[in-house]
Each structure stands twice: as C-alpha cells, then as structure tokens.
Write a structure and sequence with these properties.
- This protein is of the alpha+beta class.
- A hairpin with a 3-residue loop joins β2 and β3.
- The model has no long low-confidence stretch (mean pLDDT about 95).
Length: about 160
C-alpha cells in the first residue's frame, strides 16, 4: 500500500492527526483577516456604540480571543496548542468592519487555524449583535495574510488592488 499524498489520511484513506512530535519547537505567528459587510447606518451605529446589545467591538474581540483558544474543539484534526498571545483588532469603514486576528505560540505546529477561527467567530459575533439593525450583513474575505515560523518559513499574502 502506498503512502497517501494527503497528510491527514493514513495509507488506508482514513482520517488521522498528523504526527508533529518529531518537529522542532519554534516561535510561530499567523495573521488572518475577514470583513463583515453591512449597511452604512449599521456601521455608523457600531462606531458610535449605539447598537442595542452593547459594545459590539469589545464583545467581538473577546469572542475572537476565546475562539482562538478553542480551535481544536471545532476543527477535528487541529492540534491543541499552547496559545501564547491573541490580538483581535478592527477597522470600521462606511460599509464594512474588518477584523484582523494575530495569534502567536512557541510550539511544533502553526497557528493559522487559530487566527482564522478568531476572525470567523469575531465576525459571527458582530452579526449576532447587529442583526436586529441589519439582517442583510455578509461575512466574507476570510484569508490568511501572514504566517511566520516552522519548516516552511514565512508566507505573506499580496494585497489586491482593491484592498
């Protein structure tokens, strides 16, 4: 039987968690971003702190941090890591809120999934808190923007002309 080209499948095609024990421990960082698109009035309400459910940005920040720490509970083959730091920041524009999550660790595998999960859950929290004002919101553009550390080194996404 030949080895599967997919790292998360064993030679019989069954799902498996990749063995990271032989890997070197190193400092790793990942940055992800996504956006919540919304009506102008909704973005204005968030910026003014006037959403009925409370401080949208503060709650979304805590939700993102909590999500980064719980990523292995959500993604079946994701390794539990000692998450060293999580930063979740926001940019509010006229028709969107951009979320950026940065996650760091010193471990044997990267934190890309933790950063992307932090963005996703922060975005869902924004939707939940603002849905009474705007049910037409759209969550999109989730992407890894930077990954540092590990055997594969550094990755940085090139910004599109529209970014």
């Amino acid at each position: 039987m030949t080895e599967s080209p997919f790292t998360h499948l064993d030679p019989l095609g069954r799902a498996r968690m990749v063995d990271v024990t032989p890997k070197e421990i190193s400092h790793r960082r990942a940055i992800a971003r996504c956006r919540v698109y919304m009506d102008v009035e909704t973005a204005s309400l968030v910026a003014r702190g006037a959403i009925a459910k409370g401080d949208v940005i503060a709650v979304a920040r805590v939700a993102g941090i909590q999500a980064a720490k719980r990523t292995p509970d959500l993604i079946p083959l994701c390794h539990p890591l000692l998450v060293g730091a999580v930063y979740v920041n926001f940019e509010i524009a006229d028709t969107w809120i951009e979320i950026e999550a940065q996650v760091e660790t010193v471990d044997r595998t990267g934190v890309e999934m933790e950063a992307m999960t932090a963005c996703s859950v922060a975005a869902l929290t924004i939707y939940d808190m603002c849905k009474s004002a705007d049910r037409s919101m759209v969550i999109g553009d989730l992407a890894l923007w930077e990954k540092v550390g590990g055997k594969s080194g550094t990755y940085r996404r090139e910004a599109d002309a529209t970014d």
